[in-house]
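Researcher: Go.
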Amino acid sequence: MYRTCLDIVMVFFIYLQYVEGGAVLEIMPCVTNWFDGVPLNLTCVLVSGTVDTKVSFSRNAESKVQCNSAFADCFTHDPAYSHLGHSSQSMTMLIHSFNEGKDNTAWTCIDSSPPVSPIPCIISLSAKYAVSHEDMTSLEKVTIPFNVSVTGICTYQLPTCTWTYMMQGMSEKRMIPSGQTHINNTTASCNAGDQQATCILKIDFVPEEFFNRGVSLHVSITHPSLMGSSTPIDIVSSTMFFTEPTNVVPVTDLMLGSVTGTVVALFLFVAIPFGWIIYKRKKLRKREDRMKIITRTVENQKQVDNPAFSYMPPNT
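Model: Structure:
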C-alpha cells in the first residue's frame, strides 16, 4: 500500500513537470523595430522556472546562438550572430548586421523543452534616419522672433540634435542654450513603431554680440540608424547679419503711463524734501532779518534816551 502511494506521487510529479514544460524565457527589452545593416544586441532573460539542459536564441524556430543551462559555454550556429556575454540568469546575442528580409521577423529565447507558446519578440524593419525638410539653408531675411527647423523621415526612435552657432572671427562653435531648442514628434502617416521628429531652434531676441557681425547656425544630428557612420548629419545656415535690434517692443500707452508715473514719482521723491529745505531756509532768513530790524530800532531808541544825546538842527 505504501509503495503504491509513493509510485502515484512520483508519477504525478513527473506529470506536472511534463505539463509545465521548461523554463519561461523572454527577450528583454524587446526591440520592436530596427535598421538594415546596423548591429543589434538582444538579451534573453530567465523569467521563471529552471533551464533543463540548454537555452537558445531562435529566429523562426531556428537556433542561432545556444548556451548551457547556466547560460555559459555558448556557441553559435551562424557566423552572422555571436554570444556577447552572460550572467547566471541571462545571455546576450549580437546580430552583427541586421539583415532585411531575414532578421525582421519573430525571435524567441527557448529552453530545450519549451512551453507550448514561447514569448516572441517581433522585430520590424524601419528606414534609416534622413532629413525630409529643413529651412536653415534657405534663410534670407530674419525677423525676431524666428524659428528654424529640421524634419526627418518616419523612423524608429528620436534623433539627438545639437545646436551651435559661429560668429565671423571666431575659431570655434558655441553651444546654444537648451532652453531655446526642442523636438516635436508625431506618429501620423508613419508605420507602427515609427515616428517623425522635427528639431526646432527658436530665437526670441538677438544677443548684443551678434550686432554688426555675421552669424551662422549649425545643427548636428545623430541617430541609432546612423551607427557606424563616420560623421553625423550636419546642416549649416547661410550667414546672417544683425545690424540693429529688431526685437524692440513698441511702447504701449500702458507702458508709457507706467514710465511717466515712475519719472514723476522719482521727481517728487527728490523735489519734496529739497523744497522743504529751501522753504525752511527762507523762513529762517526772514526771521533773522526781522530780528535785525528790531535790534536796530532798540539801539536807536537807546541813543535818543541818552542824556548825552543832543539834537543838532541842520544848517540853514
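Model: The radius of gyration is 45 Å.
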